[in-house]
Amino acid sequence: MGIDPSFPSAWRADAEQAVSEWNSIAGKRLRFVLVSPEFADITFSVAYLGGAYGQAEFPANGEPGHRVRIDPSIPTSLRKLVFVHELGHCFGFRHTNLYVNGEGAGTVGGNVITETPREDANSVMNSGSSPNQSQGWRGFSKYDVTGFQNLYPIFMSPGMYAPGTLMKIVARSTGQALTVEGNSYATDARIIQHPYNGTGNDQWLLQDAGNGYHKIISRNTGYALTVQYDSYTPGGQLIQHPYNGTGNDQWEIQEAGLGYYKIRARNSRQCVNVYNNSSSVGAPIIQYPYDGNANEQWYITFAQ
Ligand SMILES: [Zn+2]
């Protein structure tokens, strides 16, 4: 981040705070430092915008939006919120209320981020015309935080996680998490999908099992995600079971695009799958040959 010499010195503290607010979100990959503007990826400057208080650029070609421009007419009470908001555009956020506004996807896209709702009245990324935005900075909403974490997850690739770090594993199709049914401590208890609640039966340790495979270990029980009966049949149920390294409890975690992963059993070469593409809470998790559907693509990120 940089601050152009044109930027009024009275605004500087708010710009620095805006950068700090984004940095304060835990469990995300991006981190920002303030540097001289000639070295910055994103620069604050002042500009006459003809009606808007702020304007930013979206990312392109693998780089963030490079400019945040602020109109001299911005009220003091709105500075910090607008600075935070415009930086959000540079990281790739559209307006949370873009569909309410009728802005549409446009040329840059308008995707709902996994685990976040389509609308969120408390989001800092609502447009300036949104009622709550007139109140100035009130902090990030819960879903602003989730959205930022999920857009820039720390879990980037197998092996990049810190050992001992608890992860949640969330289905792209439903936003529900890989969970031990009934918080059971029984050997062979089924794995289901369930909304994440952080009770430990939906938190997992990913451990090295050698040869590029992982063990996926339940926090509560210490048991491993396992294909029941070492089945090679599509639809074979996934269970928890004491780890024994026989290949039906070893998993290859492969990129599936857009930050999602497929999770493939070593023995059967089939992938972790929400049964019948169900959206029901409690639907069983099975193995199935991978065919690129969202019920076999998983978001893997910090359990918090
Ligand atoms: Zn905006």
Describe the protein's architecture and organization.
With 304 residues, the protein is an alpha+beta fold. It contains three helices and 16 strands. It has helices at residues 12-23, 79-91, 142-151, and strands at 2-3, 43-46, 54-56, 67-70, 166-171, 177-180, 191-194, 204-210, 213-218, 224-227, 238-241, 251-257, 260-265, 271-274, 285-288, 298-302. The strands form six sheets. The chain has a four-stranded mixed β-sheet with strand order 1-2-4-3, covered by helices on one side. Strands 9-8-5-16 form a four-stranded antiparallel β-sheet, with no helix packed on it. The radius of gyration is 22 Å and the shape is elongated. It starts with a strand and ends with a strand. The mean pLDDT is 92. Zinc ion binds at residues 85, 89, 95, 127.
